[in-house]
Every structure is written in C-alpha cells, then in structure tokens.
Amino acid sequence: LVASMEQVEETYIMVKPDGVQRGLVGEIISRFEKKGFKLKALKLFQCPKELAEEHYKDLKAKSFYPKLIDYITSGPVVSMAWEGVGVVASARKLIGSTDPLQAEPGTIRGDLAVQTGSKQICRNVIHGSDSPDNGKREVGMTANIIE
Ligand code: RTP
What would be an example GO MF term here (predicted)? Predict the structure, then answer.
C-alpha cells in the first residue's frame, strides 16, 4: 500500500458547469497548486454529448444518468490533468464526498457547494478520477476528443 502511494500518477480533474458558472475555477486551481501538485494540461470547452456519455459510461444504468449527461453538457467545463505522487487518492480527499451536504468542511465540495433541491441531480462543482487507470483513461479521452 505504501509503495503504491509513492507512484507518480496523473489524475483528470474537471470543474463542472456549475463550478465554472459560479467562478470557482481559480479557487480550485489554487487548492491543487498549494497542495504541491503539478498542472500538466488545462482546457475550457463545451463538453460534447458523446464525450459525456463516454466519460460516464459506467453509470449508464443509473436512474440519474440522463440528468447527469444534461448537467455536464449544460455549459462550459474546465478539464485539467494534474500530476504528482499519490495525486489520484489525494485529489479525491481534497474534493470530498459526492453529496455536498455530506462533504466535510475543508474539502472543495464541503466548502463550496450545497444541494440545490431534492429532485436535482447532484451539482457538486468538480470531478476527480477514482483510480490511476481511470486517471490515464480520462486524460487521454479528453485529449483525443478536443484539440
Ligand atoms: P465524480 O465521478 O463526478 O467525481 O463523482 P463521484 O465519483 O463522487 O460520484 P459518482 O457516483 O461517480 O457519480 C457521478 C456524478 O453523478 C452525479 N450524481 N448525482 N443521486 C444523484 O443526484 C446523483 N448521484 C450522482 C454527481 O454529479 C456525481 O459526481
């Protein structure tokens, strides 16, 4: 376990449309920079439906999937590749729990997001890869689709 934490990894971080619209991009970048991770790539773009579907293909069977695709394609996102030792797990800790109401203070979701309504898809400001393999996959996928 200790050995795997010492790997230099890459993670895919995406500021979701609510985060971009609310002007949280600078704050989010600042948190990753201050932690000591290295920014490798960054792009603002409107996520095409096909990329959103590919990105969230594992969630296709979920009841919230159609709303999730609508949410992610509803406005520009900022996609980033961040590099560092143990960056995948560390980024998930910096981001906090999926539900902003459950996310601890001090985390990005805990500090910067609330739930907007009981019937709303969870608008939680940011995405971070959940494994080193998915980090590579998601960074590569975005690089291939956007120039
Ligand atoms: P992410 O992949 O975006 O970092 O999020 P996660 O691992 O924390 O959560 P996941 O279960 O993979 O869900 C992906 C995104 O779908 C939205 N969601 N809404 N019941 C709901 O309203 C609901 N459940 C999931 C969130 O935006 C979540 O981040």
Answer: nucleoside diphosphate kinase activity
Residues with a known catalytic role: 127
- Please name the residue ranges forming H helices in 6-131: 17-21, 25-35, 49-55, 65-72, 87-95, 108-112
Q: Which CATH number covers residue 57?
A: 3.30.70.141
| Tens digits of residue pLDDT in 13-69 | 999 999 999 999 999 999 999 999 999 999 999 999 999 999 999 999 999 999 999
User: Is 92 a known ligand-binding residue?
Assistant: yes
Pairing of strands 38-46, 8-15: unpaired
Rounded to two decimals, the pTM is: 0.93
ipTM: 0.93
For the chain, the domain total comes to: 1
Q: Return the residue whose CA atom lies nearest to atom 25 of ligand 1.
A: 122
pLDDT in tens, 80-93: 999 999 999 999 99
Judge if the beta carbon of residue 135 lies within 6 A of ligand 1.
Answer: no
8 DSSP assignment: E
Domain that holds residue 9: 2-145
